[in-house]
């Protein structure tokens, strides 16, 4: 057995215990974890200082160093996150359906834990405690593989979590960290079908693509957001500008940020100068099709490469469309089907758009930035699914479970 | 663009229409299809005769020829299946959740079609019409790739279905058959991520393994059933014998047939001679552990290879266990987590078994043969999922959909 297989076997044993412990025990254990993160924060901060020093010496850019850095306040945030998840209603053990068959069989469909969840993530060390807490609340053990840059920090966080779990009714092996951070361990993890029930990649497009391409374990694809704001001919220009600016600029590095602006031709002459000006005041670089470049003559032309791209930056592609149908076709062709929005005062146009655009979340008159577990009332999220199987959109604890049929008879045969 | 990519693009267009047609139109279209299958059955029978002649000349074994062969009666069955699916309540457009957020956003989570479903299957030509009907009822277009042996039959069936669809409000491209039946087309299909939302393999263990290993498109793993009957110390021996015989012998070639018999040591001396005799009277070959071979001295020893195997034949592995815990551990180690059963008069033992055995369907005092969409009241099924993502156990039309969030605001920004 390889190290990872041994880890898988231990996780499976832990999952067997998690499957039968009470909701209260899971809550208690997570409270222990939250307390320990605060109590032992100096260990985490020391490990994080070492990671930061190594990363800085290695030439890591400022923005990434900032993601990697922890502080007392950030650790408080991690602990608060664990506490909030601990108090979320238990998603396990719910009777989703219950009925009797004519032959007397009594059928119950009941929510149960997934089992063992693998998570491959990149630099941010708070992901470690967030994901582990979500998995435990949902009754699953997890195997975490974080980025090399945050390794010492992740190790400190998981050590503290494991020791806190040891003082609780749950086994320490509910949370394990892969200590081998070279590429081989990721590949092995993607093929650990005997032990992993699901694999969730959290990170940039490259990581997600690599997992989708190589995994034999079932994957939940998360993240990429090429989100659109379509300004219909019946839009309020003021509302469209406010939504576009918010969706583009309030946090350009996240997946629910808008990347493209489509404007109906009938309103473009009036609306686009206003919206474009407001965006440019916020330092957004516009790139446009020919028609929009007649309004903004100084902007770069947008190519197919632009239409397909998630900039994750203060850049926005702009296109003028002849009709709502053309807007929908553009979105169907280029969207990553994460979140798309129509701004209009016409309810029929809104209904058409929301029916025909095949994305996880389709907005009418609201910023795409609301696609977030916390914002939508689902609690903390483990990621935003952009595939259609299992869960779509933000995945909270309620989406981290499966179900089974429990059938009672008195000797029925077929 | 390759042929398959063109097919994918056409399927995506058809899916766009299917997404917005009414429930009545889908029902009407499927009724057209059912009628056409009956009306034009001579074309199907003629194509099937050619397939059979070629298969026989190629030396196909009798049992497989039987699966391949159609008759007027079997075509009637196919048409009746399509009609039954057409009348199933529409799984699309259901509001699964609806709530208002404090900021005034109105959130609806609504069931929507998956989009384009790929199905790779083996010899049985009735799968063609079954799967196509289920996909259409669930609002998805499908791309079917059947076995080489049934190619002419599948072509006739899909041609008739497509022509019937052309006379309906739905486009013919709701159903397409891959006409290139060499291995390359299967591999290409497994990687058609741009067009396929999900891929479902239907067939033997080899096909399923190959799809799981090679697909980048999300897969729903179906089928393999190494199902267990555990006879608890508090079992009714008569009931245990009836269930074991039914689960093993009523149709040994299917995935919900039982493959293993576990008997509690305290009841074994009394129960195993009775159950074993009844099985052997039905021509079942027993293979046993050391303890059960003291009761049946003439049977072959069972090896680890036996414990892990789905025989799909009149063979059954037998093991005597010291406790319910040992039975559960055995099942956790060897089951494919399809369907497992406890026979007992002790409700506490049943509850323990049903909680701790992590399989799609866990029975108490009933045959594993009930794991079937029709039997469980889910309607026709596209397969039985043995993975935990998306759907578990029998998948009917209700499991062939996904959901999206439709959110209405009046200018909310974050």
TrEMBL record, chains A, B:
The keyword Oxidoreductase applies. Catalyzes the NADPH-dependent reduction of L-glutamate 5-phosphate into L-glutamate 5-semialdehyde and phosphate. The product spontaneously undergoes cyclization to form 1-pyrroline-5-carboxylate. Keywords: Amino-acid biosynthesis, Cytoplasm, NADP, Oxidoreductase, Proline biosynthesis. This is Gamma-glutamyl phosphate reductase. Residues 36-281 form the Aldehyde dehydrogenase domain. It holds the Pfam family Aldedh. Pathway: Amino-acid biosynthesis; L-proline biosynthesis; L-glutamate 5-semialdehyde from L-glutamate: step 2/2. NCBIfam families: PRK00197.1, proA. One of its GO terms (biological process) is L-proline biosynthetic process.
């Amino acid at each position: 057995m390889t190290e990872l297989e041994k880890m898988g076997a231990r996780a499976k044993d832990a999952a067997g215990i998690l499957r039968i412990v009470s909701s209260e025990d899971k809550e208690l254990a997570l409270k222990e974890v939250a307390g320990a993160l605060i109590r032992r924060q100096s260990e985490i901060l020391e490990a994080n200082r070492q990671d930061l020093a190594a990363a800085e010496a290695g030439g890591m850019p400022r923005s990434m160093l900032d993601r990697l850095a922890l502080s007392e306040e950030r650790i408080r945030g991690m602990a608060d996150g664990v506490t909030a998840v601990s108090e979320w209603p238990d998603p396990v053990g719910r009777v989703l359906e219950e009925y009797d068959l004519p032959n007397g069989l009594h059928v119950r469909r009941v929510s149960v834990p997934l089992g063992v969840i693998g998570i491959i993530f990149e630099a941010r060390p708070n992901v470690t405690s967030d994901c582990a807490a979500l998995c435990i609340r949902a009754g699953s053990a997890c195997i975490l593989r974080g980025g090399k840059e945050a390794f010492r920090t992740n190790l400190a966080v998981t050590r503290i979590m494991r020791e806190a779990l040891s003082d609780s009714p749950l086994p320490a092996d509910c949370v394990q960290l892969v200590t081998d951070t070279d590429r081989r361990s990721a590949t092995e993890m993607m093929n650990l079908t005997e032990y992993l029930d699901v694999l969730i990649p959290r990170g940039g497009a490259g990581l997600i693509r690599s997992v989708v391409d190589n995994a034999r374990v079932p994957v939940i694809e998360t993240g990429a957001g090429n989100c659109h704001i379509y300004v219909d001919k019946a839009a309020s220009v003021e509302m469209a500008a406010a939504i576009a600016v918010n969706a583009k600029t309030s946090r350009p590095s996240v997946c629910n940020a808008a990347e493209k602006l489509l404007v109906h031709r009938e309103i473009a002459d009036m609306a686009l100068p206003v919206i474009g000006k407001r965006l440019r005041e916020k330092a957004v670089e516009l790139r446009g099709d020919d028609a929009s470049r007649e309004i903004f003559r100084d902007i770069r032309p947008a190519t197919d490469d632009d239409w397909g791209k998630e900039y994750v930056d203060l850049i926005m592609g702009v296109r003028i469309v002849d009709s709502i149908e053309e807007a929908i076709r553009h979105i169907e062709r280029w969207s990553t089907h994460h979140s798309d929005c129509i701004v209009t005062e016409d309810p029929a146009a809104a209904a058409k758009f929301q029916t025909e655009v095949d994305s996880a979340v389709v907005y009418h008159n609201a910023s795409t930035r609301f696609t977030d577990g916390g914002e939508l009332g689902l609690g903390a999220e483990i990621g935003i699914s952009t595939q259609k199987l299992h869960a779509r959109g933000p995945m909270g604890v309620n989406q981290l479970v499966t179900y089974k049929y429990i059938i009672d008879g008195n000797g029925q045969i077929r």
